[in-house]
Write a structure and sequence with these properties.
It is built from eight helices and twelve strands. It is an alpha/beta fold. The longest helix is centred in the N-terminal third of the chain and has 13 residues. The protein is elongated, with a radius of gyration of 18 Å. Bound molecules: calcium ion.
Length: 224
């Protein structure tokens, strides 16, 4: 899951982006509204966390501009004041949800999960392919009831594959949604992560769920 965090206060931005990275999210940070619009124009984010109080262009302006441009990415607005007017303005500008600062990190994670659930066909936190289960809330993975230990990054890679099961995902798509801007596309990091995932998920089983689509990319699907 790739996320754009728009926050001008460095201390808060560092705290949030470090915490989200520990949970396997790929995070880019913009420190003002115009930078946020630039980022959103070049990358396809899964979610945008947008502070309402920004220097220059306010969060509500950023949100309204993105919606006018046709960007439908879920937006979680961060507001410092627990004022009804602020929240109403945020939601009216196109934000999907808001969180009042200061907030507990666990609540931020829960709100992000809730927004990601709004994609069609996703009703809960548990994704499933054949006997493989991924719980997006706890990051717990199991296959045929046996727990599998993944790193946070492997977990997010698996989550991305499973949210788009049966679809071929190119390395570029994977890079854009699982890694952030600092990712070096020339490296074979994705292949290495896929190999590690396969070792943990498929090696002990006859039916292989992660498939290589020659010349295209990877796909996770039930064995046919
Ligand atoms: Ca701010």
């Amino acid at each position: 899951m790739r996320l754009l965090l728009v926050e001008d206060e460095t201390r808060i931005a560092d705290f949030i982006s470090r915490g989200l990275s520990e949970h396997g999210y790929a995070v880019d940070v913009a420190t003002d509204g115009n930078e946020a619009l630039d980022w959103a124009a070049v990358a396809d984010y899964d979610i945008i966390v947008l502070d309402v109080m920004l220097p220059g262009l306010a969060g509500t302006e950023v949100s309204r501009t993105l919606r006018n441009r046709g960007v439908r990415t879920p937006i979680l607005m961060l507001t410092a004041r627990d004022a009804i007017e602020d929240r109403v303005k945020g939601l009216d500008s196109g934000a999907d949800d808001y969180l009042v600062k200061p907030f507990a990190f666990a609540e931020l994670l829960a709100r992000l999960r809730a927004l990601l659930r709004r994609e069609p066909a996703l009703t809960g936190n548990v994704l499933e392919v054949a006997g493989l289960k991924f719980d997006a809330a706890t990051m717990e993975v199991s296959r045929d009831g046996v727990a599998i230990d993944l790193t946070a990054k492997e977990g997010r890679l698996l989550e991305y594959l499973m949210r788009h099961q049966n679809q071929v995902l190119t390395r570029t798509m994977i890079a854009e949604h699982v890694w952030n801007y600092d990712f070096d596309n020339a490296t074979n990091v994705i292949d290495v992560h896929i190999r590690n995932l396969r070792r943990k998920i498929d090696d002990r089983f006859t039916d292989k769920l992660i498939q290589t689509v020659r010349g295209a990319g990877y796909r996770i699907a039930s064995p046919t």
